[in-house]
Every structure is written in C-alpha cells, then in structure tokens.
Amino acid sequence: xxxxxxxxxxxxxxxxxxxxxxxxxxxxxxxxxxxxxxxxxxxxxxxxxxxxxxxxxxxxxxxxxxxxxxxxxxxxxxxxxxxxxxxxxxxxxxxxxxxxxxxxxxxxxxxxxxxxxxxxxxxxxxxxxxxxxxxxxxxxxxxxxxxxxxxxxxxxxxxxxxxxxxxxxxxxxxxxxxxxxxxxxxxxxxxxxxxxxxxxxxxxxxxxxxxxxxxxxxxxxxxxxxxxxxxxxxxxxxxxxxxxxxxxxxx
Length: 251
Known about the structure:
This protein is of the alpha/beta class.
C-alpha cells in the first residue's frame, strides 16, 4: 500500500504541475475575466481535470505494485501517461483555438471574438489592410470597435451575409478600428438595464440589485450586453468618460 500511495502521489504531483502550467498560461494570457466566462470553457477544463488529475493518478494507484519489475511498471504507467497526454493535447488545443482575441463594440453590443471566429483568409486580409489591429498567433485580447464599412455596398453585403449565416463584421479584422474611435457612437447604443436584450425579467432584477450594491445607477442609460459562446454579461459604463466600471453576471 505504501508503494501504491507513493506512486499515486508522484503521478498526481506531476499531472497537477503540467495542468497548472498549461491552464495558468492560457488563463493569464487570454482567458482572464470576462474571457473564461464568455467562452464557456468549463466543459473542456472538466475533461482535463477528470483525466489528468483523477483518472490518471487513480489508475497508477491501481496498477502500481512493488512485485512488478521496473520494466513492467514503466510500461504500464507509460500507457496511462500517453492517454493523459492525448487528453491534455486535445484540451489545450481546444482552448488555444478558442482563445479570446478581441472584445468588439459593434452596432449595439459588445462581443467577444475568439480565434476560430476569424478564418485564415480574413486574418490575411487584416494583416494586409489593417496591420495594427490584425490578429497574430501571439496576439493578446484587445478592446476594439468593429463598425460596418462606410461603403454602402460592402456594408449591405456583410449584413445580408450575416442574416444568411455568413461572417459578421466582428470576424473581419480589416474593418477594425481602435476602441477610442468608437466612443462617439457608444452613448447612443447604451440602455437602461430594464431595456437590455438577452436577459429575462428575473435576471434583470438580479442585475439591478447587483448594480445597486456596487453603487451603480440603475435608472440611467449606462449598460450594454457582452456576448460570447457562453452566457451573456452586462457591462456598466461611467457616462462621464465612457469607461467600463463593472461587468456583471446574471446568476
């Protein structure tokens, strides 16, 4: 039993270290609030934890025996580690491909744009036509403004394509502009929390309670939804300088 516990502990320590390094790098690099919540990455992380921190060390505990030869024990643990590595690669790749690259103000909402929202052709066009705001493999999340192009024909083409399932302007970095340039359009799109879409009446009530608890006004047009793959959030703005002063969950 002592031998099994030692093998289990060493395996658990190694697995926890590898998982912490990978998840920590992704979290602090790309998934910091509100990225993790909006990306709804919980399912992928749960798989990683289940395989790498639970199943792997537990299997080592079961198969470890002091009566086995070193070669046999190494082979058995190697098989377990190989399965863990596959799960870790799958999870890390999924999180990497879905990493947040932009928080875009577009039309009447804020939207998180993830890496797989932008195809290779759009990335290439972005680097050619709008290099300053184009995505690269090392790009960290940026707050930007994603207006429709000034050319009416191009704008209509994008809107029509979006309606029929095509890409939205938030997936086209060539049209992105600095966040500061969009502030002049922002006030006209802010709403009172009671008028914001995406939330039910009960959720709006809870959001208002949280706004009041944080000292935010609930009777002003100072909010805007933030959307992503997961549940939406509510951004609260300071009307004096149009800075975000709070990002609230509806739960």
